[in-house]
Every structure is written in structure tokens, then in C-alpha cells.
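Human:
Focus on the backbone:
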Amino acid sequence: MPEIIVKYDSKIIEKVVTEKPRISIGRTSDNDIVLDNLGVSRKHALIEFAPDSTIVIDNDSLNGTFLNDRKITEESLRDKDRICIGKYELIFNSSMERDNKFSDLDGTMLLQTKEHKKRLESDKTQRQITEKLGCSVLVEVNKKGDKKEHLLDRDVVTFGKSKFCNIPIKGFFAPQIAAKIIKEGASFTLVNLGKNGYTKVNGEAINRYDLKNNDLVQVGKVFFKFIEAGA
């Protein structure tokens, strides 16, 4: 049974478990998930559940719906995906553990917060990068702030100090092959091939992990930002 965890300012305020085929999200009390904030439209978004998929749909909202920091219209959900609506963050767990006229906005406030502007600008920049390169990418960032783009345009991309690896990982103790990313359709799975803790995502050690947009990947002492090609 799917679960939606609703967070505000990083604090959990509600956990929603449902058997409905569709739930609505918005500011007014007739929604299944009520987000009481003027940055949220009255009927902001929908989540539709099917036996083999779950889809989040933006309901032509003023401020938009973001999935893993990427502005979306309609997108399939994966376990642990983050849906951002206004100042709220909704975490999807697959099982428990258009231009508007101002008169059409139903009292919704246009968000001008730094966080919302930053999210919009990041989404725009990331889309420009992936559209230019034609695929999802890893952006490597070093201590000097220099950035290098690694294309994820093949079925398997490897990390390590072997000359045969696609992405070099330097260091005396670096494995010949430290990790790999497997592309399956539109999904990218990161697999650790080094010792435990050598590969991390968002600061946590992983053995196998399905990457999501904006994930921070660390292999050894090298950091990358995963940017997923937009729909």
C-alpha cells in the first residue's frame, strides 16, 4: 500500500496511506492532502495509482510541481521520489515504511521566495545542459569549483583508475574498477564495486541505488551531480 509523507521545513507533518486510485493535492479542504499555504493552488496536483505504476500530475498550477527538483507536467513516480509543492515536500513510498490570467488564479500567491526562484533557475539550467548534450549527465565538481560533464549515453559507464574506465578515479588506494552506472531504459542504477562505503549517494553509503535527478554521487573522493534528461 503506497504512502505519502508530507514535510514542511524538513519536519514531518502528516503521513498519508491510501487505497484510492487517485488523490488530490491542494490548498482547499476538499483535497485529500491539504497544503494550507497561499503558494499552493486550490487544486494543485494529482497522484494516480495503478497496479503497475504511479503518476504525479500538475494541475496547471501557478507555481508548478517539482519532482526531484525538476519541474514536471506529468511524470511516473519511483520509490523515495521527492515532490515539491510550494514550501512542502512530499516523499513517495511505494509501500509503507499553462499560462494563467490573474483572474484565474483562485487566490493563489505567486511565490517569490529565494528557494522557489533557485529551484526554477536550477531546473532551467539543468534542462539546457541535457538538451545541449542530448542525454543524462554526471557533472563532476572539484575543490576549485571547476566542472566537467560526463555523458551517460551508453548502457554501462564505469568509474576507476583503470585506463579502460569511462570516468577516472585517481588515488593510490582507488580500485581499478570502483563503481558503475547501468542504464536500463530511462533508469540509471549506480552499483558500488569497491569496498563498503567507497560509493555514496547524498552522503550515505550504497551498494546499489536507482539515481534520481539532483542526487549527489561520491566515488572515493570525487563528487558528481546527477542530472537526468528532462521528459
